[in-house]
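Structural biology now treats backbone shape like a language. To illustrate, our science desk offers a sequence and the tokens encoding its fold:
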Amino acid sequence: MLYTAKFALGNLFTWPNGGLQPANASGTEFETIQDFSVEFVGKGVELRGQYLYAVDARVTDVSGKGKMKVGDWNVEQLNNLFFAGTVTTGATNEQIYADESHVIPSSGPFTVTVNNPTGFVQPLAVMQATGTSLTNFDEVVTPSLKGQYSNSGATFTFSSADLGGTVLISYIANGTSALLNIPNNLQGQSPVVGMAGFNAADGNGYVFPYCRVTGVKPLELTMNKFAMCEVDFQVYAPLGQPVGQIIQASY
């Protein structure tokens, strides 16, 4: 038997098949696949008598579980798989702006307005260029001590003791983005999806029409590695329906 042909990944597909579905759910294909797998694990029940070994053994409570990890994804895919929330796109969605560099004026007023003032939501942090945090003093009182600031919307006011210094302002404001609003759904309510995957080299694969995603890791960030998305799912079968198929393309 040659194993070289097995040395490849393939394609992964999911499609809606019941449960709590978000609006406009549709089938999708995942890209830049890193790995995917499925396993079936049962509980062994033994019938024992006076001898060392069991006189019979049966398998019960079989669970089918799978996982996949991909490098390309979008919030609509995650919403269809797990969250069943609402996805919006456009310039009115919130976006994070991190470490925006500004220089405090050398003469009063010692104010700075961020680069994206439209739809300003909230400040996240104000840091000195050296990495030291500044303290939010009061939104209505002018800061008087070094290292203090206040903000009124997108405008930040600093102490005269910090004039000419460089600050890094991080904040949330409206931007062009896709936003997934995660609802707090009832227990047990989630999308039912079908899952299909196959090996591109030999065509072997699986099809499971009834799955529920049990976990999503939308961002796995590690130094000197690509960001990944990981999905775990559980296979089940409604009464009278098949669990699925495992396909061996060449037999």
In short: DSSP finds one helix and 14 strands in the chain. The chain has two domains: 9-51+70-81+178-247, 91-176. The chain has a mean pLDDT of 91.
